[in-house]
Amino acid sequence: MAANRPGAPDWLSAEALAVWDALPDDVLTAQPVDALTVYCCAVADFTRAQQALDRTGVLIRGARGGLVRSPLNLVKADNAHTIAALARQLGLASPPGDDEGARQIAQAYRNRAATERTITGLRRGGRLEDADAAAVALARHIAHALDHLDPARWPAQTASLARVHLATLRALRGVDDNDQQQPGGIDELLAALSAPVGDPENP
């Protein structure tokens, strides 16, 4: 270890400590310990959530017996956001030695990221009001679903959700679609959400 290389907090998990040990010396010596610690924990938690999802799948049986999204998806998404934000702050393009992993994160959350950019742009432009809160929440929910729905396995559901997502974003932007043939809004959304999804383990 380099002479001026700071040591990791002694409470870090083995996974987070491995991330710390892989950080370059210049990053460890130049950046705040708290930010470095959060980054390492986020990478470790993201990895654990992804490994668990690889075992269980993105859909699990809910309390009523139907298929629901695994809460691990939210854990993964939250940590992916933290990793991306801190990587920029710390001068890291991606988790150390994991360029492919960084690309996979970006690919896995492309719809959510694009939706957030749209919402941010509209908010900065003063085009969102309190009355738009439900539409904003709907756009975020559908973007999250699109990022985790395999279009090769569920093409009809993916197409339906994509059309409703675009309609929701058009509504937020105040685009007038009266002269165009557009999806049926909430009716189509309900139809898409109620369409049988099937069991990933037994398609």
Short description, anyone?
The protein has 203 residues and is mainly alpha-helical. Helices cover 63% and strands 3% of the residues. The chain folds into 2 domains: 14-108, no CATH class; 110-194, no CATH class.
Produce the secondary structure layout.
Blueprint: H1 14-22, H2 25-30, H3 33-56, E1 59-61, E2 67-69, H4 72-90, H5 99-108, H6 110-124, H7 133-148, H8 155-173, H9 185-194
Q: Care to describe what's here?
A:
The chain has nine helices and two strands; from the N terminus they run αααββαααααα. By secondary structure, the protein is an all-alpha fold. The chain has two domains: 95 residues, no CATH class; 85 residues, no CATH class. Strands 1-2 form a two-stranded antiparallel ribbon. Helix 1 crosses helix 3. The termini are far apart. The C terminus is likely disordered.
Task: Give the number of domains.
Answer: 2
The percent range for helix content is 55-70%
Q: What is the C-alpha radius of gyration, as a whole number of Å?
A: 20 Å
- Physical arrangement of strands within the biggest beta sheet: 1-2
Annotation field: number of helices: 9
Cα(first) to Cα(last) distance is 51 Å
Give me the count of strands.
2
Portion in strands: under 5%
User: What is the typical, i.e. mean, pLDDT?
Assistant: 75
Structural class: mainly alpha
List keywords for this structure.
203 residues, mainly alpha, two-stranded antiparallel sheet, 2 strands, globular, disordered C terminus
